[in-house]
Amino acid sequence: MTKNIKCHAGLQTIPVLFEERWGKERIEQLVRNSINFLRDIVEKRYPNKEDREAAPEAERKALGIVAFDAIVSSIDTSMMSPFQKFLFWMSAWWYYDPRIRSQLYLDSCKAHEYAQARVVEFVVPVLPENIRNVLSHMEVISVANGFGHFAILFNDKEAKTRRIVTDTGLFELRDVYGYNYIDVSPNGNPFVRCVTGHGGGRTFFDGERLMAHDRFRTCAPKVAFFEGGYKVNSSEVTIVNGALLPLIEDEDAVAHTTGAFMGVTDFSNAQAIESYRLTDETAKRLAVKDGLVHLDNKPLKQMGFFKPSRRAELENGFTLFDYAEFQESFACVYDHILVVDDKAAWIEAVVKAFPDVGRIDRIRTSNSEKALEAIIANNPEVVILDMHLTVHERFDGLWIAREAKKRGYGGRILIASNYEDNALGAMSVLTGGLEAPGKNLDRIKKLLANK
Description:
Number of strands: 25
Radius of gyration: 28 Å
Structural class: alpha+beta
Strand content: 25-35%
Low-confidence stretches: 1-5, 261-265
Shape: elongated
Distance between the termini: 36 Å
């Protein structure tokens, strides 16, 4: 459950009130009606338009019904309460089922309209009266059910405002519109994906943070939950529990789009199904340890993280979430660094500054030849090289850098020195354009984070 969200006791009684008001028999009939409605609007999916048009409509529908019946019969809802079962069949379950997407064509607009009407007719009346009054001018656009929790998404199109009713709290979001995708997490938090005027035009809300960023230019087709939280992709990035990372599944074609969604223009239905598979498989390999995201027990480098949103308790009983502040990370993007210096204190300072780097070699020496051999032998991705390895200040670093390049070293060399900026600039020129951040750890961190 989201921390600091006002707990409305009446929300947790909704499933009981729903069952008392409508009765198990009628609820079962509503479920059957929903399944039959979907059954009536499906047809077999064909590889291309030509094959579809060549098949008679009756054949397309008959084959579609056979496949649909087989899929539905394999779905086990026996452990769900009547309310949970109703919400499951009113949700977009078919949208995320790869069997539906690969085998069948289903009119999503009709499916959504039917489900929304049933939720308005049978769920909204059992909400607490004060909540119904607040929502009276809004439309139901989506529902989610899972992990013993539920979430209902309401929309005010003109005001670009959305409200979410769950069994754990009441949430309000502003300057959001467009997509109506909602999921519910194992801890009862809603997870919503929408269009926004902020950042790159897409926003994600995880019950703690309303997140927007310049990199969010598309919504992924699926959010995946794992024991430590959730993951979801946007344009060439992955979000895990509010942490922003470079895209984990580079082969996910959907996550390389910048505006289209679910096969509208620039990726296929097959690629969307593959995206489902990839995100689910990756989630199984993820873990969160000491605040860091791990894939296959290896920590991943973060681009930054979203702080929990500032929130305000509104008079209408809902909690308003502001857009979350993004804290940029200066995590090093390299896995192997070599520090060359004659001062132990500086070497240890560098090591402490980069705790997430897999390998940091340390060479404390006043011998230029020894320093050069260490660079060639270890072949690090980055060398942090002291300009003066001796007390005579003979600019040893200049010779070492030049010789290393002559001998084929292709990594990055940063010149470290206590000189002022003007002198550091001159050193950069003398070394043929090598970066000279000096012994300023903040500058070095930014450079090694590619900022």
